[in-house]
Specification:
mainly alpha; about 5% strand
Length: about 200
């Protein structure tokens, strides 16, 4: 698939059958939020994801590994996304969050593309992601993502204090589960205990 010469897909293919799906960016933002939400049980996630992706249509593929992979491939904008099970390792290095950064993302699209994400009737997920990836450094969200992504060990010592402050200022919110786990690790370290079982 090439965004420059091919039409964006409006369906997924499972076992040589095509199934229409909902393609608007809002649906797929909710899909991503659902995938990354540790408070939602995995068995519920699959049902909720299927409802999001297919809507009220009566024609759905059988829900199996092939269907899950086809959904994940669409979510990945045509680039294979591995395994629909388990926790995402990408979550550990997240540099944006659609809830925490909604205002910055909204402002960036308006500033750079003159696209009002509140008023646009429909914007395909793949187009939204391409535009998001194409945001330039003069957008605040790109600056913030840069602070979150920087590794302090790669920054000259003279600048580490500044980047440490920026990382703290723009840190993404931590879930209650993650906070409890961090506190548990800190307590174990302070007590001189091992943390292997906690990691």
């Amino acid at each position: 698939m090439n965004l420059l010469i091919d039409s964006v897909p409006k369906a997924i293919e499972v076992n040589r059958e095509r199934y229409s799906i909902r393609t608007d960016f809002r649906i797929w933002i909710m899909f991503e939020q659902l995938l990354l939400d540790d408070s939602v049980d995995d068995s519920y996630k699959l049902d909720a994801a299927v409802k999001l992706v297919f809507g009220d249509t009566t024609r759905k593929p059988p829900i199996n590994d092939d269907t899950v992979q086809a959904i994940l491939d669409f979510y990945g904008c045509g680039k294979a996304v591995e395994g629909g099970k388990g926790k995402s390792s990408a979550k550990d290095s997240k540099i944006y969050d659609y809830d925490a950064d909604d205002e910055y993302i909204y402002a960036a699209f308006l500033q750079q593309y003159n696209i009002d994400l509140q008023r646009v009737q429909s914007l395909h997920w793949w187009q939204f992601k391409a535009l998001f990836c194409g945001l330039t450094d003069n957008c605040k969200i790109v600056e913030i993502m840069g602070y979150r992504a920087v590794k302090l060990e790669d920054v000259p010592k003279s600048q580490r204090s500044f980047y440490r402050k920026m990382k703290k200022l723009y840190a993404l919110p931590v879930s209650d589960d993650e906070l409890a786990k961090t506190n548990e690790i800190e307590e174990a370290l302070l007590a001189g205990k091992g943390v292997n079982d906690l990691l």
